[in-house]
Write a structure and sequence with these properties.
Elements: H1 3-18, E1 45-46, H2 48-55, H3 90-93, E2 94-95, H4 97-103, E3 108-111, H5 115-119, E4 122-123, E5 127-128, H6 152-161, E6 170-173, H7 181-191, E7 197-200, H8 203-209, E8 214-215, E9 236-237, H9 239-245, E10 251-255, H10 259-262, E11 281-282, H11 298-306, E12 315-319, H12 324-335, E13 341-344, H13 347-352, E14 359-360
Parallel strand pairs: 1-14, 2-7, 3-5, 3-6, 6-7, 9-13, 10-11, 10-12, 12-13
Antiparallel strand pairs: 4-8
Length: 363
């Protein structure tokens, strides 16, 4: 991996120490499908007073900070509706450590944690495929090419190399303190047409608590043929779509980064600018899971979003730096009944990399 990739990975590890339970991640792709450049609009910097109105739930707003956040004039530019995506349920999304212990021989296990953690101990016979495995880290940061998934042809080979043929069940896991890599991998598998894939609730810790076997031996499955003709629709949006739809009635931009990132106090991944998208609501990724890294109940997620006046009818774009945390939350939202939810794969790093796109910045 190139020097730049090592720097980014170091930043991620630092952020995981700085934040409780769950943290951050990024991705990439010079091999990704080309996308149209965002329409150029005058740069917009909003005041700290306006910013407070964004990050605060409407139900908890006080009179002083109840000013609506302004978005640039002439918005939206070219609005288009967000289509309903495929729903998830507890049964389609999750398996328990108890279930896995009984059925381990009939599944393909994917450890989505970084290689260093995999080497320190993993579920026996699990292959390692962290987020960088599914994305090209060689494109320039701050562009729409960095942090996005591979084209279908390349992704087909990478998924097949893990021994995944689309028929045998896949169980993906990471662990508490991670960046939601399990949700990121599952999101990719779903777009690739694989329905028979799930997340291990509670991750490696739950497996150990169940008395499951752990190994330090690197495991590799035999490569198999797998083909993706095209990705399934309604799982992701790009910079151009957001730029055209920002300010549209019913659209929610959900920022799942840490509060310090959202407020623009830190730029842990060398983003070109700090802050957040105009009118974005900040709900950190960790708020979608319980202490033991189990998903919150669907009802809890619904109640959480209701505090921000977000309903299942809302069109939700989930974003973080470059899509990993956002993909995890997107899958959680689908499970909680928010089917008009999609991941901004290019992420904040791409948005911040274009100085002509509007950004909210603390004063």
């Amino acid at each position: 991996m190139k020097k730049l990739s090592s720097t980014i990975l170091t930043a991620f590890m630092l952020l995981s120490i700085m934040t409780p339970s769950l943290s951050a991640q990024t991705l990439s792709s010079s091999d990704n499908t080309s996308q149209p450049s965002a329409a150029v609009q005058p740069k917009t910097e909003l005041s700290a007073t306006q910013e407070n109105a964004v990050q605060k739930p409407k139900a908890q707003s006080d009179e002083k900070n109840d000013t609506a956040v302004a978005v640039p004039q002439m918005r939206p530019l070219k609005p288009s509706p967000m289509e309903i995506g495929e729903p998830e349920t507890e049964g389609s999304l999750l398996v328990s450590a108890e279930w896995l212990k009984k059925n381990k021989g009939n599944v393909i296990l994917v450890d989505a944690r970084p290689e260093s953690l995999y080497a320190g101990g993993h579920i026996t016979n699990a292959v390692n495929a962290s987020w960088t495995y599914f994305a090209n880290m060689n494109a320039a940061t701050g562009t729409t090419k960095w942090g996005t998934i591979w084209k279908p042809a390349t992704m087909s080979k990478r998924i097949g190399a893990l021994g995944i043929n689309g028929k045998k069940m896949v169980v993906v896991y990471d662990d508490a303190g991670g960046w939601g890599q399990s949700g990121w991998v599952l999101w990719i598998l779903r777009m690739s047409g694989i329905k028979n894939a799930k997340i291990l609730e509670g991750g490696l810790t739950a497996w150990k608590n169940e008395g499951g076997s752990v190994s330090r031996k690197v495991h590799r499955n035999k490569a198999v043929a797998f083909s993706i003709s095209k990705y399934k629709e309604h799982y992701l949006v790009d910079t151009d779509w957001i730029n055209n739809n920002i300010g549209k009635n019913g659209l929610v931009l959900l920022d799942v980064r840490t509060l310090a990132e959202y407020q623009g106090k830190i730029r842990p991944f060398q983003e070109k600018r700090a802050g957040h998208l105009p009118d974005a609501v900040n709900i950190e990724m960790q708020n979608f899971v319980q202490d033991q890294y189990h998903f919150k109940e669907a009802e809890e997620i619904v109640a959480l979003l209701q505090k921000y006046s977000i309903t299942p009818e809302s069109e939700i774009v989930v974003y973080d730096t470059a899509g990993v945390r956002a993909a995890f939350v997107t899958m959680a939202l689908r499970y909680a009944g928010f089917h008009k939810s999609q991941c901004y794969d290019e992420g904040f790093q791409a948005w911040a990399g274009n100085p002509d796109l509007p950004l909210v910045k603390a004063q």
